[in-house]
Write a structure and sequence with these properties.
Blueprint (H helix, E strand, L loop, with lengths): L8 H13 L12 H8 L3 H13 L3 E4 L5 E4 L7 H10 L2 H25 L2 H16 L3 H18 L3 H14 L13 H16 L3 H31 L1
Antiparallel strand pairs: 1-2
Helix pairs in contact: 1-3, 2-3, 5-7, 5-8, 5-9, 5-10, 6-7, 6-9, 7-8, 7-9, 9-10
Amino acid sequence: MRLRQEGRTEEVVRRLIEVIDLGLFAEGEQLPSESELAMQFGVATVTLREALAYLRERGLIETRRGRNGGSFVCPPVEISEELLFSRLTEMSALELRDLCDEHIAISGTAARLAAKRSAREHHARLEHYIRALGEATTRMERRRADARFHIEIAVAAQSVRLTHAEMSLQAEIGELLWIPVSGAQSPEAVQQEHRAIADAIVAGDPNLAGALAEAHVTRGIKRLIDLRLNLLAQEEE
């Protein structure tokens, strides 16, 4: 998706971090060429190079020289639980509620449109990430399978803007949803909810698909709000 304003290095950085963080570019995968990426983002090549230089400094990509050279995605580093708890406590209840409202609007609309517009190949992708969640063995794998399922719904809705909005939301809050604490969401329960949403999309039932997606998002954010309140209460004690 092209940037609204050309020459914004930080926006290119943010979007590349999103796609790498969500696993849209896999470990070891080569990024498109500088000229191709610059064209996709609608920025000058020099801007794209500045963004890639920042990603190299962060250890997200490495650049190899020579005939088969280019920029390649480095192995992912899982964010520590302490940092996730810190991020959550820094967010206010109002921020979480606003995120919930936004996510409900995006996910619900995407699911309804997916039920109307999706094709078999979209259904296969949804099924793939439902299975991936059940097979995941680490927090990062679960988070990525969960995020990719929601992103694929937006893709199935055939909406570039909804897809980008879902990606941004998953990058912002997706990791927090998988904080390992007592009472946290279980992979099995999330997988069942994903299955129900996918079944409604495959059946072509937009009302049910939208309602299930909205309820799924609401439960996830509510758990985060409850967790944040518990953390604050423990700090006061």
